[in-house]
Amino acid sequence: MKRSHPLATVLAHVLLLAGAFLMLIPLLWTLSTSLKAPGTEFSLPVRWIPETWHPGNYLEVARLVPLPRWFFNSLVVALAATFGQMLTGSMAGYAFARLRFRGRDTIFLLFLATMMIPPQVTIIPLFIIVRAFGWYDSYPGLIVPGLFGAFSVFIMRQFFLTIPEELEDAARIDGANHWQIYWRIMLPLSGPALATLGTFTFMTFWNSFLYPLVITRREEMRTLPVGLSVFRDTFTTEWTLLTAGLVMSLIPVVIAFLLGQRYFVRGITMTGLK
Amino acid sequence: MFKKFTSVALLALLTSLALAQTEIEFATWGTTEDIAIYEDLIADFEADHPDIDVVLNHIPSAGDYEQNLATLIAAGAAPDVFFINNISLPGFAAQGAFTPLGEFADEAFLEDFFPGHLAAFRYEGELVAIPRDISNLVLYYNQDMFEEAGVEPPSEGWTWDDFMAAAQELTQDTDGDGQIDQFGFGYSTYFLFWQPWVWSNGGQFFSDDHGEFTLNQGEALEGLQYYVDLRCEANVAPTTEQAAERTAASMFAQGDAAMIVDGRWRAAPLNNDPAVDFVYDVAPFPEGAAGSIVDVDGSGWGISSSSDDPEAAWEFIQFVSSPEAMARWTEAGIIIPARRSVGTTEAFISPDVAPASDEVFVEANETAIPTETFEGWGEFVSLLGEGMSEVWLCETSVEEGLDIVADDIEDLLSEYQ
Amino acid sequence: MAAESQVTIPQASGKSMGPLRRHGDGLWALLFLAPSLVGILIFVVGPIVMSVLISFTDWRLASPLTLQSLREDWVGWENYVQLLTWEEAHWSPFRAIAWRAPILLVSLAGLLWLMWRRSLGVIWGVGLLFLSAVLFGYFGGLIVDWEDRRFWQSMWNTLYFVGLSVPLTVAISLLLASALNRQLRGIAFYRAAYFMPVISGAVVVALVWRWMFNPSIGPINQFLGLLSIEGPGWLNSREWAMPAIIITDIWSKIGFYMVIFLAGLQGIPHHLYEAAELDGANKWHKFWNVTLPLLSSTTFLNVVLALIAAFQVFTLPYIMTEGGPAGATRVLVYYMYERAFDTPFRMGLGSAIAWIVFVIIFAITAVQWYARRKWVVYEE
Q1: Distance of CA C365 to the CA centre of its chain
Q2: Percent of chain C with pLDDT over 90
């Protein structure tokens, strides 16, 4: 590609930086509030840089609540869902993108349809089913329903469709079966898609609130977002503590994104497709 | 050594098998302070009752508590004992969520509670929960600010006119930039904080049988309009714009509002807040045409109708509602105790801890009444919010605002006749 | 349009049938689908079926849900009847046409454009145009006193929200992805920055934007003040509250769709651009004739996802405005939540609302699904 004009590059940077700043505002606000002295978070005029630094909020959070345990629970739930959905989603996605079978499109549309019903009305039936398995207040209860989802199937199907079929022809002529094609050709080619899906799933389950709240009851089974909401009460929200907790809970998601984003940009263009 | 260990372990196992363990689950909301007290109490309770295990389900965030509790009940996972406030109680009781407590709580047990307050925990005549606390409202005021402005502090017998005069004096532009930055009164639009203005003017939200919506007429309308005018006409309280996201409580804590109407739960945060560098006290809510009538609401413990072991559940309620247990929350400054005996002790009335006039909280109960709740209260509040939203912005009058939703409210009431 | 005819687009995948493809792949399909199918049937379809049943009852949330309670509380179509019927209706056809004129003009332009692109037959186009004009003119003058005022208020609010937020979100995130899909210093930082609102969580986003939109202290109106514009009341104004929520929603979502677009852009073989360049295509031509068609399966994905998310919008109005002022931001799922999760806990009615939402999303998606063969390149 031709090199852009230097002025155009500068202009692009200015625009992108301005946009990036706008995007970072909530994060900056969270960070700044987490470092303020309790009671000063809403004083006027708004201060981005705390008047007095108060990093003690972080220690206070760690003292008041069992952070490591919640952290561990969240991590287990999010990682299980991430790898579970990458596997189940890519398998089903392969079937819908590459296999021919009766009722394929109808079944796929029904898969999609499961995403269209607002989750607020299915949570109670879901709860009843999970309880019937004896999984109330347990790790299987937190984890198992998160291993599948139409979203991951949808995203993988759409990406598989964009992979040119010629790539598989050679393997097929060599007698490879569908599992081998899926495992040895399609998956290695789907780096960006899997990274995208993985990041989204990790993020969704790491931040998930309503489901882990109803499905657990003991403090040691809570996940991070549920546990941290202890600082939110009807008439008194302890903003400084809540935001300190939020900052800590954001760290793994940022790491997950940074790990994933290295793959967003490397795709089949770099894996030998001419 | 190893042998000894195994035999001890075996013994422990055998005893635990011999004592059939009952598990009771207890659900509550609460701040970290609150929960720390519960954890202590549960440990003591389990030591006293080796056959009962208590599982604490702390549902954080009071805002979603009722939704979560209702979800647990719906899924058949109802906690044996749950904490609930009297305002959402009818919504649960109407679905048969409670075990009536008549057979457990005898007269001797209930003697220590205020009958008027207990009434808020009855549904169709049956007592369904034992109250822990009384939440009523008083007038908090910043003594330093009153002194500086040379205004006589609020006292018993203060009327709305006295209140208005003081509020006007205290509303000031302290730095001379043309913008008011100190208000006589901090403002809240949540119903809990303004229903005293309706009642004290002689009005009611509904007719006594909940058959008619009366907030949009007569004294009720007048009282509510008076409250609206505090911000919209007299401007002794900040408008939405002037408040700029600050709550009444935070404006009071930062010295930007001289008075607020608030509950007991406000005292502890004020005392713990290093930014509060002024002396404050409390006084009764000012008297309107019908006197000084504030809300007396509260929260208490009920037993689920699907509890496997209501006896064990009652044991637990008895324990946490004992005067000793109640004194712990009281000492922490979290509650006004529901038991009379605790309300007169040092635990509640401690002269060294602000506010100085603790007795005001107790005296307010003489005339206070509970929120006019009913089975459809949640939906009513949402309709009320819709009707009032532009009233709070000073764009329309109370009468016109409530007109939008009056029909819907009448429909709602007619469902429960 | 010189470049258009020259660039060859890879063949749709299903059409090249390898030697193994002659018979159906039923057994393989079963193998590949089994994990998802079993999981989704139990944990997703099961609850969905139960929620359909609930929508035909007057079951209330604070009592145990059992088959028996469903039978006892069965009310048939009553919830749907309450939501969908009116007490009184009268027509004043073709009344107040003025405010509808711009909408008509836009749809007219859209249809003409489609016809010009030959995606739509001329006859069909004219027919559709005529039909929509008549329907719009006629029913636009319909004044209905609905049985459930709040439901229809939330219906219009939702359509308003979806109509603006979906196209804008998809378009902006596509532009952003194209801008960030290149070698540029600090590209990783930009990508991460634009994704931050997605990971911050809706609660923080809503709270921060409440402050941003505050008419007196919020930076938005302060900025407008610098330009000597008196900013609106935003969340305190019936007219501006919804636009404010739409802006917040777009802002918080573009990072998500951008990442999907970025992954999709990686799949476009480079040689196609080179071929287009040889044909003298400029940037715009390349975007229009190479990027857009080859990205269409990703666009399809994003449009469907954005539609589903937009119809289910809840957290932003819940935290930013509580549905106000005067119900101006009460959307369908918010209304459903109020009815189902606040006393008197009318879960039956709430489920019926959810199912009406479902039917609308499903209908729109199904239309897209069958229309996708027209515009999604890789679909057969």
Answers
A1: 10
A2: 37
* Separation CA C252–CA C337 (nearest Å): 22
CA C194, CA B317: separation in Å to the nearest integer? Answer: 52
For the residues B156-175, what does the mean pLDDT come to?
93
Assess A65–B contact: CB distance below 8 Å, yes or no. yes
Size of the B and C interface in Cβ pairs below 8 Å? 101
Q: Could you write out the DSSP letters of every residue in B277-318? A: -S-EEEEPPPBBTTB---BEE-EEEEEBTT-S-HHHHHHHHH
Question: C109 or A138, which is more confident?
Answer: A138
The span from the CA of B191 to the CA of B380, in Å, is 11
* Residues A19, A37: Cα–Cα separation, whole Å: 30
Angle between helices B65-74 and C332-341 (to 10 degrees): 70
B259-303 confidence digits (pLDDT tens): 999 998 888 888 887 778 999 999 999 999 999 999 999 999 999
Closest CA to B171 of B237, B102, B242: B237
Q: Which of A98-107, B12-21, B320-329 is predicted least confidently?
A: B12-21
Residue C159 above 60 pLDDT? yes
Question: Which residue's structure tokens are 């190893």?
Answer: B2
- Using a pLDDT cut of 70, give the percent of chain B over it: 94
Name every chain A residue with its beta carbon within 8 A of the beta carbon of C282: none
User: Two tokens at B38?
Assistant: 């519960």
Handedness of CA B45, B47, B50, B54 (dihedral sign): positive
Q: Look at C201 and A135; give whichever has higher pLDDT.
A: A135
**DSSP state for residue C62 in the 8-state scheme:** T
For residue A202, what are its two tokens? 């990790």
pLDDT for residue A99 is more than 50? yes
Judge: C40–A264 Cβ closer than 8 Å, yes or no. Answer: no
For residue C154, what are the CA distances in angstroms to B180, B400, C264, C346?
38, 21, 35, 17
Render pLDDT for A158-188 as a digit per residue (tens, 0 to 9).
888 888 788 788 888 888 888 999 998 888 8
Q: How far is it, in rounded angstroms, from Cα C367 to Cα B206?
A: 50
Average pLDDT over residues A73-88: 94
Residue A271 above 80 pLDDT? no
Handedness of CA C140, C141, C142, C145 (dihedral sign): positive
Pull the structure tokens for residue B132.
């822990």
Residues 6+ apart with CB under 8 A from B237: B167, B183, B184, B185, B186, B187, B230, B231, B257
Comparing CA positions, the residue from B247, B285, B250 lying closest to residue B139 is B285
pLDDT at B7 exceeding the cut of 80: no
Q: What is the distance between the alpha carbons of residues C53 and C33, in angstroms, rounded to a whole number? A: 27
Three-state DSSP at B139 gives strand
- Which residues of chain C are within 8 Å of residue B244 when distances are taken between CB atoms? 214, 216-217
Sequence-distant (≥ 6) Cβ neighbours of residue C343 within 8 angstroms: B66, B88, B90, B91, B92, B375, B376, B377, B378, B379
Q: Which amino acid belongs to residue B105?
A: A
| Chain A residue closest in CA terms to C197 | A23
Within 8 A by CB and 6+ apart from B190, the residues are none
Residue B319: pLDDT over 80: yes
pTM of the model: 0.88
Which ipTM score applies to this complex?
Answer: 0.87
Task: Report phi then psi at B321, rounded to 5.
Answer: -100, 5
Asked if B57 and A226 come within 8 Å (Cβ–Cβ), the reply is: no
Model confidence at C13: pLDDT above 80:
no
CA distance A41 to A35: 9
Closest alpha carbon to C169 in C78, C255, C65, C245:
C255
Query: Residues of A with CB below 8 A from C65's CB?
Result: 124-125, 128
Q: Flag whether pLDDT at B327 surpasses 80.
A: yes
Please give the residue of chain B at the shortest CA–CA distance from C62.
B70
